[in-house]
Amino acid sequence: MSLTVSRCYCDSQVKANSDIKANPLFENRNPRALERMGIARKVQGWKFQAPRKDFYHKLVYDKIKMTAYVVHSSGKIVIEASTKEPAVLKYLYKHNDVSASWNLGQLLARRMLESGITEVFYDAENKVTEYEAEGSKPSEKIEAFFSALKDNAIKLSEPEPVKFETVPGINYEGYTRLGERKRYQEDYQKL
After folding, report:
1. How far is CA 132 from the centre of its chain?
2. String of DSSP letters for 22-43
3. I need a labelling partner for 191 at 20 to 30 A (CA). Which of 89, 95, 131, 161 fits?
4. A GO term (biological process) for this protein (predicted)?
């Protein structure tokens, strides 16, 4: 049995999609699109405010209760996973050992990928200072949880926000046009 493969050969002079034009009045109604590009505003808060608020999605992991969840900047829990869920618990020997922590990371990573979240904020600075104060390294549970997340291509840092050159608002120090004569223009807003 032979397989037939059909191929499309394009003329090199004809550009693909040259006849398609974008709609200039397009309105993107997906609220997460701007967050993924790093254009959406982050709530800054104060410098020494605790807990931090400058994130789109924050990862919270509790190794005592063996739960992990992702919180949106609005304060709502987006994704949640626990080793005490009946579907997970029946496959585990214990619900609070190292393998359970690794499986919790796998489960949360799968749910995050299914919902389209690939980058989350994790406040590692506070955790590292806790371990340095104790003089020890992170526990095996924490290392297993985060290795499961990294194996599934979840980044523990968010995209850097895009900084625009111009800041919207009134420039009180710049040139004013109050003394000028009014001029008629065909198009006041150039696209």
Report:
1. 28
2. --TT-----HHHHHHHT-SPPP
3. 161
4. translation
